Amino acid sequence: MNGKEVALLAIEQKRPPRLPVALIAGGEWYVSARGRTFSQIIDKPQQLADIFTKGFEGVGQDLLWTGAGLLNYPIHFLGCPIVDDTPASPTLSGTVISSLDELSRLRIETVTGNATMQGIIKSHHMTADAIGKETLIMPTLWGPFTTAARIIGTEQLMLYTITDPVRAKELIAFSTDLIWAIVEQILVHPDIPGLNISEPVASSDLISPATFRQFVMPVLSEITNRARALQKYTSLHICGDTTRILEDILIIHPDCYSLESKVDLGEAHRFLGGKVCVLGNVSPTGPFLTGQPEEVCHEARQCLAAWGDPRGYILTVGCDFPRSVPMENIKALMSFQQHIL
């Protein structure tokens, strides 16, 4: 049984023969490992695909988020400057619009019609052609709330949820349709069984559960339902301590929920166990980054004990990880693929 098959059993709440282990995100690490910057490869679909293919071949993870590190490019194609000529993940330097009065300027076709965007979509398909039968490929994009925050600025979006909630929802609806216009083209590949949506700005460290329920939950449910209609899986990642919205995650009901080390896995199991596959949650900035392999293994064992269930769990890091993480620590995490359930 290969990694893809093992991961699918976890997602389907069936007991796999061994523990599924993954590296979520990691685009910066993959690109840096090849001695490149994103600016050198972003307009070269085959090189983009090779980055993720080589990342898999060097590590052997059971689940792979393709497109990691590329999430800001759709915002860039809308008109926001980007800095991508360093070894770090590309960062936006500004916003697309400065107020909701400019909403009418936004066009999905500006993004989907961009040649580089089409190349990025093609790179997902090339990666799936190469390794899509061996590992579970889940393309990753920003979620609607985070996309809206990237378009207008996080502080501005937060303010508008209070002062102009109707038009804030219009921007979030545009972001939802933008994401789906990209995702729909990616998901046509038969060896891409689903997608991951990352919503860092929807973190409970940034917004209240009430704001989450009003502005975030409906659009995440919409994307999950659209994917399910295509018979595709949905994974959701939200940064920070999301303990207060675990019940809401159950209502959204993605197939997978990726959570940070701030969330106790035992508590996550109380809400989600047997219903939603959980990915987590070795800290990417703890021993994984600066410690020794045996410390990584100790933290991983703590995660397994906290979840306490052979079903519905994939061991991984709690969030994206820096390019400086040593290979021996990654291999220490991957060694848990030998853990028989």
| Count of discrete structural domains | 1
| CATH architecture term | Alpha-Beta Barrel
Note the quaternary state here: single chain
Mean pLDDT: 97
Q: Low-confidence segments, ≥5 residues, pLDDT <50?
A: none
What is the CATH domain class?
Answer: Alpha Beta
Shape: globular
Q: Bin the helical content.
A: 40-55%
Rg, Cα atoms, Å: 19 Å
Helix run count? 16
Give the N-to-C terminal Cα separation: 14 Å
Going by helix content, strand content and strand pairing, the class is alpha/beta
The biggest beta sheet is recorded as: 6 strands, parallel
- Read across the widest sheet, the strand sequence of neighbours is 5-6-7-8-9-10
| CATH topology descriptor | TIM Barrel
The fraction of residues in strands falls at: 5-15%
Helix and strand pattern: HHHHEHEEHHEEHHHEHEHEHEHHEH
Overview of this protein structure:
The chain has 341 residues and is α/β, with parallel strands linked by helices. It has a single domain, classed as TIM Barrel (Alpha-Beta Barrel). The protein has 16 helices and ten strands. The strands form three sheets. Strands 5-6-7-8-9-10 form a six-stranded parallel beta sheet. Strands 1-4 form a two-stranded parallel ribbon. Strands 2-3 form a two-stranded antiparallel sheet. Helix 12 (246-252) links the parallel strand 7 and strand 8 (256-259). Helix 4 runs parallel beside helix 7 (115-131) and helix 9 (154-163) crosses helix 10 (165-186). The two termini are 14 Å apart.
